[in-house]
Amino acid sequence: MTRVKMLVKFNLVILALFFCVVIVRSDLNSGTEDDDDSLDSNTGGAKMEYKDEILNSLPKMPEEKPKETATTGKLHIGIKKRAENCERQAQKGDSLHMHYKGTLKEGGTEFDNSYTRGQPLVFTLGIGQVIKGWDQGLLGICAGEKRKLVIPSHLAYGENGSPPTIPPGATLVFEVEAVKVEPGNRRVDL
To answer: Would residue 100 show up in a list of annotated catalytic residues for this protein?
Structure first.
């Protein structure tokens, strides 16, 4: 249910409650003044109990979960195919040879593809040679493994994007395949 529909429903319930209270008050006030005094002194607690009962019977507004935005979203990593024989899991400082296809999450427009070039991208993991979403999302990958990375803007190109192919604030989707994982020859502290 959308937020607007929930608010309309909640307002209708509040309006109905208001009319119930008005009707109850008019019934209580329809007696003589002496009756009114006795009602106030003898049943004031009952009136409050009745109001609490009505309030407790109203549907509760569901808590709205915070929506992921470009600056609060999390990196999502999906394993599409596990490696048959994993000799080495990628670590910071390792050299990775990666094939990939990159698309925009919104609209699915492809912006880059190493398969069409016929050459995997070669880079050192964890030293900022690629976007942060790759440095984080490829840790532990094995040669032959395929993953799907959904990378929020703050772990990709941020609010500036990478014009003209990647708009500002874009969430990116990468289908990646580790062709080779080679041990690094330098220590990386990140």
So the answer is: yes
Q: Catalytic residue among 10, 50, 112, 127, which?
A: 112
Give the chain's length.
190
The percent of residues above 70 in pLDDT, for the chain, comes to 60
The domain spans of the chain are 3-57, 76-182
User: With 50 as the cut, is the pLDDT of residue 105 above it?
Assistant: yes
Whether the predicted pLDDT of 37 surpasses 70: no
Is CATH 3.10.560.10 the classification given to domain 76-182?
no
Q: How much is the average pLDDT of 94-102?
A: 98
Q: Three-class SS of residue 137? A: helix
Q: Which one, of 79, 52, 72, 57, lies nearest residue 154 by Cα?
A: 72
pTM equals 0.61
From the list 77, 94, 151, 174, the catalytic residue is 174
Annotation says 112 is catalytic: yes
Active-site entry in 94, 100, 123, 135: 100
Q: Please pick, among 77, 131, 141, 166, the residue that the annotation labels catalytic.
A: 131
Distances 76 to 91, 107, 108, 140, 142 between C-alpha atoms, Å:
19, 18, 17, 15, 18
Angle between helices 33-57 and 3-29 (to 10 degrees): 160
